[in-house]
From TrEMBL:
Entry GO MF terms: DNA binding
SUPFAM superfamilies per UniProt: Homing endonucleases (SSF55608)
Domain annotation Sporulation regulator WhiA C-terminal: ranges: 213-294
Protein name, entry field: Probable cell division protein WhiA
Regions that span the bilayer: none
Family note: Belongs to the WhiA family.
All copies of domain WhiA LAGLIDADG-like, residue ranges: 119-210
Function: Involved in cell division and chromosome segregation.
One biological process term in Gene Ontology: cell division
Keyword set, alphabetical order: Cell cycle, Cell division, DNA-binding
Length: 299
């Protein structure tokens, strides 16, 4: 069964690869959040068949090149690779880096000036290094990369776009994450997965309805238990009065109330009040019960 993250990536992969600038920005996000990106190798590993189908089209459009290595399924993992030096130099050059220098991966914001390119970049980052938890369990979305400087700059980009990311180091990885459902919904909608965002909203509403129903049921049960405990206390007190011969000495109204409680031990005070002849208010019945409890305590 496909995971929720898998469904999100499936939806993102249905976004067309059209404009060159956006294709390059998305491929840029893929490279920064993929497995390996260096002057000597590009290596991308995925378990998403949809992403695997998208990658060759994306790199052909973005850089005009094909992968040197295409997937041979290895325990569900699909591996793409580029080791050809001329192809690597072309990628590095088109992303604005200097092929002659050591590649320190940072974000070239010159490629992300337009909003559509920023969106495409984040979509690529999520497809390569992102995950999102099933909203039925909890709310959590993260972007995971081995490039610390790039991660800091992507966090700054997200903040500039109005999102509020958190950052953490986990082992050798830099992780940007979100835990508030509204932020996850907004981010998924922005990068091209509005249906997944709607699934999160629906799950949240369902949770709120279930939680409300549970709270109401718990409150009802608490009230029922409170009524039962009070009735039991009253019944025990009246039985003590009866066993000690005090019941017959009580005023008529108190004696009538005591006998009603013995006859209807499960009823609430409101129900007992209606049984009185003539009927009385709940407040009156409560006052009589307090008098009976006081008489019992005297014993």
């Amino acid at each position: 069964m496909q995971s929720f993250a898998g469904k999100v990536k499936n939806e993102l992969c249905r976004v067309p690869v059209q404009r060159l600038c956006c294709a390059r920005a998305e491929a840029y996000g893929v490279l920064l959040y993929g497995n390996t990106f260096s002057p000597t190798e590009v290596r991308l590993i995925t378990e998403s068949a949809d992403f695997a189908a998208r990658l060759p089209r994306l790199f052909q459009r973005a850089f005009g090149l094909k992968f040197d290595r295409l997937p041979e399924e290895e325990r569900g993992k699909l591996i793409f690779g580029i080791t050809d030096r001329s192809k690597l130099d072309r990628i590095i050059n088109q992303l604005g880096y200097d092929p002659r220098q050591n590649l320190v991966l940072h974000v070239n914001f010159g490629l992300l000036e337009d909003e559509c390119c920023r969106t495409a970049f984040l979509r690529g980052a999520f497809l390569a290094g992102g995950s999102v938890t099933d909203p039925e369990k909890r709310y959590h979305l993260e972007l995971d990369t081995g490039h610390a400087q790039a991660s800091r700059e992507v966090a700054a980009l997200l903040t500039e776009m109005g999102f509020l990311p958190h950052s953490v180091r986990r082992g050798g990885s830099s992780v940007i994450y979100f835990k508030q459902s509204e932020h996850i919904e907004d981010l998924l909608t922005t990068i091209g997965a509005p249906a997944a965002a709607m699934d999160i909203m629906t799950a949240k509403v369902d949770k709120e309805i279930r939680n409300g129903a549970n709270r109401a049921m718990n409150c009802d049960m608490a009230n029922v238990n409170k009524t039962i405990d009070a009735a039991l206390e009253q019944k025990n007190a009246i039985q003590r009065l009866q066993e000690n011969g005090w019941l017959e000495r009580l005023p008529e109204k108190l004696r009538q109330t005591a006998l009603l409680r013995l006859q209807y031990p499960e009823m609430s005070l409101s129900q007992l009040a209606e049984k009185c002849d003539p009927p009385v208010t709940k407040s009156c019945m409560n006052h009589r019960m307090r008098k009976l409890l006081e008489e019992a305590k005297k014993l």
